[in-house]
Amino acid sequence: MNTTLNWEKGILKNRYKIYSEGNFVGSLKENSWTNSAESELNGKKYSFKTKGVFKQVTQIIDSDDNIIGKITYNTWMTKAQIEIQNKVINWKYDNLWSSKWSVFSSEGIEIKYSGSSTKGEIQSNTREELILLSGLFVTNYYWQTTFVVIFVLFLMCI
Fold this sequence. Notes:
With 158 residues, the protein is an alpha+beta fold. It has one domain (3-157): LURP1-related (Porin, Beta Barrel), CATH 2.40.160. Helix content is 18%, strand content 49%. It has one helix and twelve strands; from the N terminus they run ββββββββββββα. The protein has one helix at residues 129-157, and strands spanning 3-8, 15-20, 23-31, 36-41, 44-51, 57-62, 67-73, 79-84, 87-93, 100-104, 110-115, 119-124. The protein has a twelve-stranded antiparallel β-barrel with strand order 1-2-3-4-5-6-7-8-9-10-11-12. β9 (87-93) and β10 (100-104) form a beta hairpin.
């Protein structure tokens, strides 16, 4: 089943709003101070909590506070691996401008994302809420990390 979702996020806002056919169906709200995010899609709620300093790993937590998966990131911020209950799903950028990315697995899951820092679209052959949200979370994680690196470099040049 093909699914199309749209998302929007205000500049300097911390909440993605997710829509299906113009109807609000979910959100992803990140909290930079605690390295975490709360998400909901179609009534299903999940949390993401990032731990570590140099080699960060994000725990995926269900609404009953059970750790049900993890996300590991590569050093160059171009790929990630999402593990959810013995499923391995891959995340990668599809272009140099970081405006297109995808999530895919050997089991046939394929989700294509496109967008900017304020809005975007998701085309998916699955309705698995957690996988859809995880793909958006990883992108937000990399965008924030890139922003922090650029900001620190800027401060060092002053």
